[in-house]
């Protein structure tokens, strides 16, 4: 398999919704091509991939959204989420993190959360966002556990 065929396989697999780790595993098993996760990620970044297919909600969040019609509106409009903390988990792992996603707090504050390689939870508030309240942080921890299936 040459580089063009490899790149086409990677692009097609990612566009079908497979994760980078799944593509990495398939490359090794089917074609005996060994790539580090970072190498694969850098290569995939240069390919025309529909990354929206990678950002599927976690299974717990998907089930919750299916049972609550109001959640569908709040996913499209973050302002509609006031009154309840919303947590999403990204399928793509950001450099230096183990997990990451976005949060919109009940108070209206919002930002990106992450868990680093040491297992520490962090939060980067969105530009212009207010600081979350103590109640926001407590509900965020509960919603994050639900989104991760704990």
Rg of Cα set: 18 Å
Name the beta content range. 15-25%
Number of helices: 6
Number of strands: 4
Biggest beta sheet attributes: 4 strands, antiparallel
Number of domains: 2
- By helix and strand content, what is the structural category? alpha+beta
Separation, N- and C-terminal Cα atoms: 41 Å
| SSE succession | HHHHHEEEEH
Proportion in helices: 40-55%
- How are the strands ordered across the major sheet? 1-2-3-4
Average pLDDT, to the nearest integer? 78
Low-confidence stretches: 61-82
Shape: elongated
Describe the secondary structure blueprint for this structure.
Blueprint: H1 3-15, H2 20-31, H3 37-45, H4 59-67, H5 69-76, E1 86-89, E2 97-104, E3 110-116, E4 121-125, H6 134-147
Antiparallel strand pairs: 1-2, 2-3, 3-4
Short summary of the structure?
The protein is α+β, with helices and mostly antiparallel strands and 150 residues long. 43% of the residues lie in helices and 16% in strands. A hairpin with a 7-residue loop joins strand 1 and strand 2 (97-104).
Structure description:
With 150 residues, this protein is of the alpha+beta class. The protein has 6 helices and 4 strands; from the N terminus they run H-H-H-H-H-E-E-E-E-H. The chain has helices spanning 3-15, 20-31, 37-45, 59-67, 69-76, 134-147, and strands at 86-89, 97-104, 110-116, 121-125. It has a 4-stranded antiparallel sheet with strand order 1-2-3-4, with helices on one face. A hairpin with a 5-residue loop joins strand 2 (97-104) and strand 3. Helix 4 packs across helix 5 (69-76). The radius of gyration is 18 Å and the shape is elongated. Residues 61-82 have low confidence and may be disordered.
């Amino acid at each position: 398999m040459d580089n063009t065929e490899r790149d086409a396989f990677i692009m097609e697999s990612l566009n079908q919704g497979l994760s980078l780790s799944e593509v990495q595993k398939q490359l090794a098993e089917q074609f005996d091509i060994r790539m580090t996760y970072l190498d694969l990620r850098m290569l995939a970044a240069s390919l025309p991939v529909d990354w929206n297919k990678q950002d599927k909600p976690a299974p717990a969040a998907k089930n919750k959204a299916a049972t609550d019609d109001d959640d569908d509106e709040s996913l499209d409009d973050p302002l509609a989420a006031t009154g309840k903390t919303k947590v999403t988990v990204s399928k793509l792992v950001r450099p230096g993190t183990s997990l990451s996603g976005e949060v919109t707090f009940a108070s209206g504050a919002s930002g990106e959360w992450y868990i680093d390689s040491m297992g520490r939870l962090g939060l980067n508030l969105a530009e212009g966002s207010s600081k979350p309240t103590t109640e926001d942080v407590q509900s965020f921890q509960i919603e994050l556990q639900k989104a991760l299936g704990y």
